[in-house]
Amino acid sequence: MHTPMETPETDPLAVFARALAESATPMALSYFRTPLDIEKKEDLSPVTKADRSIESAMRAQIIDRFPGHGIYGEEHGSSKLDSPNIWVLDPIDGTKSFITGMPAFGTLVAHLEHGKPTIGVISIPPTGEIWVGQTGAATQFCGQGCRTSGCTRLADARLYTTSPDSFDAEGLAIFDRISARAAMRRFGGDCYTYGLLASGHVDAVVEMDLQPYDYLALVPVIEGAGGVITDWNGAPLGLDSSGRVVAAATPELHAEILSMTRG
Fold first, then answer.
1. 190 marked ligand binding residue
2. Residues 111 and 100: beta-carbon distance below 8 Å
3. According to the annotation, is 240 in a ligand binding site?
4. What whole-number distance in Å separates Cα of residue 33 and Cα of residue 15?
5. 55 is known to lie in a ligand binding site
6. What is residue 109's predicted lDDT score, i.e. its pLDDT?
7. Which positions are annotated as binding Mg(2+) 2 (predicted)?
8. The domain spanning residue 30 has which CATH number?
9. Residues 162, 207: contact at Cβ < 8 Å?
10. Which residue of 10, 38, 177, 217 is most buried, as measured by CB atoms within 10 A?
């Protein structure tokens, strides 16, 4: 008897991942555009009570539902990384947007099986938009299937990166060469940009200096919408990746950008 493949709408892990991300929305909005004490972490990136409180609440839900699973979070570190199942959390992706009142921040949830991201959620609290991706299934945007644009040439591409400040000198020179050939380049967005890529509004994103909690949730979302996402050398993204990311609407566009980032 044929068993239908479970989808992000029916698979229990994917349903939980979506609910986990959505549970962060009311907390994030309760802190958004309110006075917050802003601290700097060791890497000098900003963090607030909102980031830490939301991640604590998300971790509590995972521990209650899946006590044997590992957790890798931006704010509270990692636990049980030897587990075959690991949850990767970014409670507020785009903290700089969040603390400056820009409604472009998101919540990211990834589920890894044996090191491979198999479920990813991008949730945008200010807009209520949410993308859910799962290996082997079509990405869902607010409950409906979505697809990348189909753009195959950099000359026709709408290219994004979050900030030129995230590149080192060599990386910025590479990005400048890539973007000089693109039809359009824009800055900002953090994880929101990758959701827009999955829905066909953006064609490519090139970034560096990302952390696993920044990029692992993006993988199932982009791939399930027909796109390609790897590191700058074309290798799959995992917990130990360099943090240099190329995401594109099609294999052809990805290969053209990769020809300029390899090495």
1. no
2. no
3. no
4. 30
5. no
6. 98
7. 90, 93
8. 3.30.540.10
9. yes
10. 217
The token duo for 11 is: 């698979």
Please report where in the chains the tokens 């939301």 appear, as a residue. 54
Give the Cα-Cα-Cα angle 229, 128, 209 (nearest 5 degrees): 35
Q: What is the DSSP letter of 187?
A: E
Number of folded domains that form the chain: 2
User: Are the CB atoms for 128 and 103 separated by under 8 Å?
Assistant: no
Q: How many residues does the chain have?
A: 263
pLDDT digits (tens, 9 = 90+) for 139-180: 999 999 999 999 999 999 999 999 999 999 999 999 999 999
Containing domain of residue 194, as a range?
154-261
80 and 165 share one domain:
no
The predicted model scores a pTM of 0.94
Contact 28, 54 (CB under 8 A): yes
Where the chain has pLDDT below 70, the residues are 1-6, 44, 263
Token pair 């189909």 in the structure block, residue: 150
64 labelled as ligand-binding?
A: no
Q: Is 51 annotated as a binding residue?
A: no
Determine which helix (DSSP H) or strand (DSSP E) holds 133, and give its type and residue range. Answer: strand 129-134
